Hints:
The complex is a heterodimer. Chain A is an alpha/beta fold. Chain A folds into two domains: 2-216, 3-Layer(aba) Sandwich (Rossmann fold); 228-303, Alpha-Beta Plaits (2-Layer Sandwich). In chain A, 33% of the residues lie in helices and 29% in strands. In chain A, the strands form three sheets. Chain A has a six-stranded mixed sheet, with helices on both faces. Chain A has a four-stranded antiparallel sheet with strand order 2-1-4-5, with helices on one face. In chain A, strands 12-13-11-14 form a four-stranded antiparallel sheet, with helices on one face. In chain A, a hairpin with a 2-residue loop joins β4 (59-64) and β5. Chain A is elongated. By secondary structure, chain B is of the alpha/beta class. Chain B folds into two domains: 2-40 and 174-372, no CATH class; 47-153, abc type-2 transporter like domain (abc type-2 transporter like fold, 3-Layer(aba) Sandwich), CATH 3.40.1710.10. Chain B has helices spanning 2-17, 21-39, 58-69, 82-90, 104-111, 125-153, 176-207, 209-214, 220-248, 259-283, 287-304, 316-322, 326-340, 348-372; strands at residues 47-53, 73-79, 96-100, 117-120. Chain B has a four-stranded mixed sheet, with helices on both faces. The radius of gyration of chain B is 28 Å and the shape is elongated. The relative contact order of chain B is 0.10. The model of chain B has no long low-confidence stretch (mean pLDDT 86). The chains are: A alpha/beta, B alpha/beta. At the A-B interface, α2 and α3 of A face α1 and α8 of B.
Amino acid sequence: xxxxxxxxxxxxxxxxxxxxxxxxxxxxxxxxxxxxxxxxxxxxxxxxxxxxxxxxxxxxxxxxxxxxxxxxxxxxxxxxxxxxxxxxxxxxxxxxxxxxxxxxxxxxxxxxxxxxxxxxxxxxxxxxxxxxxxxxxxxxxxxxxxxxxxxxxxxxxxxxxxxxxxxxxxxxxxxxxxxxxxxxxxxxxxxxxxxxxxxxxxxxxxxxxxxxxxxxxxxxxxxxxxxxxxxxxxxxxxxxxxxxxxxxxxxxxxxxxxxxxxxxxxxxxxxxxxxxxxxxxxxxxxxxxxxxxxxxxxxxxxxx
Amino acid sequence: xxxxxxxxxxxxxxxxxxxxxxxxxxxxxxxxxxxxxxxxxxxxxxxxxxxxxxxxxxxxxxxxxxxxxxxxxxxxxxxxxxxxxxxxxxxxxxxxxxxxxxxxxxxxxxxxxxxxxxxxxxxxxxxxxxxxxxxxxxxxxxxxxxxxxxxxxxxxxxxxxxxxxxxxxxxxxxxxxxxxxxxxxxxxxxxxxxxxxxxxxxxxxxxxxxxxxxxxxxxxxxxxxxxxxxxxxxxxxxxxxxxxxxxxxxxxxxxxxxxxxxxxxxxxxxxxxxxxxxxxxxxxxxxxxxxxxxxxxxxxxxxxxxxxxxxxxxxxxxxxxxxxxxxxxxxxxxxxxxxxxxxxxxxxxxxxxxxxxxxxxxxxxxxxxxxxx
Lengths: 304, 373
């Protein structure tokens, strides 16, 4: 059974001025860790809000575990956990009070599903009498995850769970997701960080409300059409300017300490030619190497 | 039902934990109720008066003594130049000028008639109006005394005169506090319930917790009841403290009417006002917006519900607005029940209208609430 099935879902705001979602279709398998990757404003949160029955789409169909988001919202709400991008628990209630409150609204006690959250909760347990508003960012995130899990949902929606969280906590967070997945939970997670895409089983790249590509991270990388090279020189800024003048290049953009380039045609000679051109232009310490594209390279390629 | 209990528990925890809000809910109304009625006294005392006496006779002296002796007036100056007296008015030192013309005594005896000139500083309208009428009363009184004296002298005791004696029913001493305390109490309860209810719901929107609530199986009606019930209880609690704790213990006001009727009306009224709070919360996204909208209504309620000014003396259009305000009816009801000892039969219409408000506001709010989320 598919955990989520979306068929040409559209949603616009401001009377059609902003197309948040444009005929989005994909599905998430049961027990899958599915990533929705895209920059801010791509439509990730809108999609989450529709799937969690907070928002109605303009057109298209979507089901969660076979339940229609329009008509069976009561059933969906019982079975999904949602962790919004913005921390939205009661800041004036303590960690423990928040947790027992959200357990109680699902008709459960804190202890009923304690095993599921034990690993995560133990990390914040020393602060269980502290008010949620007074927790640090990473702790808030963990508490929010606990609250989303406390009723043992079949499907977990995580909207940018790692935004604004430090690198160590991010790593820990993904470890936790893996453990949850191992217990059979389906997880739909969104993130603007391309490096996190590799941690998902399958990903959908989304931009301006449109799905650009859906595949496993490896699959998406394999789809990259041309060989990719990284170029480096002493003066990176003027190097980029020079590269942009080269007509044989299909793409060229700054990427960390290198510039990434790809050629329009697959000619073995042109790498050498480019090296000569750059030397002629007065660039020093030039180094060029063929590289494996990353998800971000794929994203940039797909955007063009 | 279980869910509702959890929601109520959570709500009360949050209310009692809010160190900034708690005094506003419980202490502020009590302090206001102690202070406001003492200040809101319509009786005007200490009206400053400047005398311009061109006559300097025993009659003008008599008039002077009578005015100052009334207790309402304080003589600021006693001179013979209108210009000097006018300066006192300009400097805001004086409120009224009484000019006694030259030959006041002579004319009065000879012609049996004399004119006095009164100039009033009308910047403070209430003070000017009341001061003027007090002064007229004293002068009329003085006039009668003089005539009576002459009547005796001239051997004509049958001086025609109409003596009016008045009695203030239900508030024999015309004590403004008796009149104001219940009405101010109504206003405070209104403010607390409307503001707090609206702000509380909008706060959940602002922080985003309402989204988190909406993805749980909590039903809308449970959420709304979870919001309304705490403030309904707090409203009744504050009203009780105000009526017995302040009204009875401090001002000695004993409600004459049936308390059950009063509380039944209060319960209904609070439902209406909480409905207004709910309605405000549906049209606002931030607490600031909610506060501004609520303030707009409270302002109108305060000034147009017969709290300070009588509705009967308003122009017709203003009367129409006043009768659209639920507060008008409660102020009327509480004055009738507490001061006059009216029965349920007397306030049947008020009950019906308030029930109408309760239904209208709540249904409207629920409709908007459904639409917006």
